[in-house]
């Protein structure tokens, strides 16, 4: 199975300049735990709840922005990648979501939950 078959194409994203209090509202509103960070159409990072918690050790919600806490070395895969390989990457790298990129453009995202759901539906 390819990740294109199970990825979420409606990706909630944020901008590096957004304040963390806005990001927490987005996470709650969309019932997600993290999101890709996009600037001028290009993926520049990823931010999740644990990044925000770590950042709060150095500043407050209203003063810190996404750029202050995001992970900039993002693991990405193309839509043609095997879902099994993506699952292995998630386990090895201790990550919960992988942005799907094609021609340098964000086209989707796959989470651990997406993979678990696909496995449950297969058998």
What does it look like?
- The chain is α+β, with helices and mostly antiparallel strands and 123 residues long.
- The protein has a single domain (3-122), classed as CBS-domain (Roll), CATH 3.10.580.10.
- 36% of the residues lie in helices and 21% in strands.
- It is built from five helices and four strands, in the order αββαααββα.
- It has helices at residues 20-30, 49-55, 66-69, 83-93, 112-122, and strands at 34-39, 42-48, 97-102, 105-111.
- Strands 1-2 form a two-stranded antiparallel ribbon. A two-stranded antiparallel ribbon has the order 3-4.
- A hairpin with a 2-residue loop joins β1 (34-39) and β2 (42-48).
- The model has no long low-confidence stretch (mean pLDDT 93).
Look at the structure and name the CATH superfamily. CBS-domain
Kindly give the count of domains.
Answer: 1
- What is the level-2 CATH architecture name? Roll
What's the number of helices? 5
> How many angstroms separate the termini?
13 Å
CATH class, named Alpha Beta
Principal-axes shape call: globular
Largest sheet: 2 strands, antiparallel
In N-to-C order, the SSE pattern is HEEHHHEEH
């Amino acid at each position: 199975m390819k990740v294109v078959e199970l990825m979420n194409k409606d990706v909630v994203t944020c901008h590096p300049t957004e304040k963390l209090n806005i990001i927490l509202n987005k996470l709650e509103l969309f019932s997600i735990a993290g999101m890709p960070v996009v600037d001028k159409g290009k993926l520049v990072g990823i931010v999740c709840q644990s990044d925000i918690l770590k950042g709060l050790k150095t500043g407050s919600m209203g003063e810190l922005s996404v750029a202050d806490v995001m992970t900039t070395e993002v693991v990405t895969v193309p839509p043609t990648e095997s879902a099994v390989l993506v699952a292995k990457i998630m386990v090895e790298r201790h990550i919960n979501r992988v942005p799907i990129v094609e021609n340098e453009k964000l086209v989707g995202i796959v989470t651990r939950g997406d993979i678990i759901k696909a496995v449950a539906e297969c058998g």
